[in-house]
Amino acid sequence: MDNSECTRCMHCINVMPRALKPGKEKGATVCIGAKAPILDGAQFATMVIPFIKVSKDNEYENVIDVIEQIWDWWMEVGKNRERVGETMQRIGLPTFLKVMEVEAMPQHVKEPRSNPYVFWKEEEVEGGWERDVQAFRKKHAA
User: Fold this and answer.
1) Please, where are the H alpha helices in 28-132?
2) What would the pLDDT profile of 92-108 be if each residue is shown by its tens digit?
3) What pLDDT digit, counting tens, does each position of 69-96 carry?
4) 8 Å CB contact between 8 and 50
5) Whole-angstrom Cα distance, residue 86 to residue 78?
6) Is the backbone of residue 101 left (phi > 0), alpha (psi -120 to 50) or beta?
């Protein structure tokens, strides 16, 4: 197994329980924004941080710091009676991740090609967002 590709989903351990076992690293995954309204149905949380190392020795300080950072952001940006997940949806995941100082990761994408979030910034895209249609057609002419 390639540990650099591990997303800590535990699928391989569930499939091969006698061949594999959880590692020595203990941690937590931070998911935010789940709710179950009657009219809309259950909504899953957004996984913000895939893995944070935690231990009893540091009394989960890393997780507490993340929660406090989210709480402070929500108190500033959130509207009256708006939940954290609703604020995240209104503002957008890329903006939320930027505020949380978290890099976009493959684990943030729910499904290929159906995730509504765009993580590219205009300066990262060659030529920016605005493209010349005529130049594109000339370049890709058959």
Assistant:
1) 61-77, 84-91, 93-100
2) 888 888 888 888 777 77
3) 999 999 999 999 999 989 988 998 888 8
4) yes
5) 9
6) left
CA distances, 76 to each of 7, 51, 69, 85, 128 (Å): 32, 26, 11, 14, 31
Domains defined along the chain, listed by start: 27-139 (3.30.413.10)
E strand or H helix at 49: strand 46-53
Tokens of 141: 């002419």
Amino acid symbol at 122 = E
Among 87, 68, 88, 89, residue whose Cα is nearest residue 79: 87
User: Which pair of tokens denotes residue 138?
Assistant: 């000339």
DSSP structural state of residue 35: B
- Does residue 61 contact residue 79 with C-beta atoms inside 8 Å? no
Token pair belonging to 105: 């990761």
Evaluate the CA torsion angle 96, 97, 98, 99 in order and state its sign.
Answer: positive
